[in-house]
Amino acid sequence: MSVPDDISVAGYDNTTFAALGPISLTSVDQAGHEMGHSAVRLLLDRITDRRRPTTRVILSPTLVPRRTTAPPAERGSLPSP
Description:
The chain is an alpha+beta fold. The chain has one helix at residues 32-48; strands spanning 10-11, 26-29, 62-64. It has a 3-stranded mixed beta sheet, with no helix packed on it. The chain is elongated and about 60 Å long.
């Protein structure tokens, strides 16, 4: 099988290696820097005021398309086995 002609491949962490030219892996970016920043801020807030109510932080992942994915094939044009 050939990527992305026959099958699309995606990762779920968007590491630096995923962006390298020979790999160019489509990935879901989980907003790692923002997640870390929020965790530190919430920890410092909790240290300052232990009675502070808990906080929910919702971060939205984003798709970073690269060379390992392609649009779906049209119906009826699947490759033969």
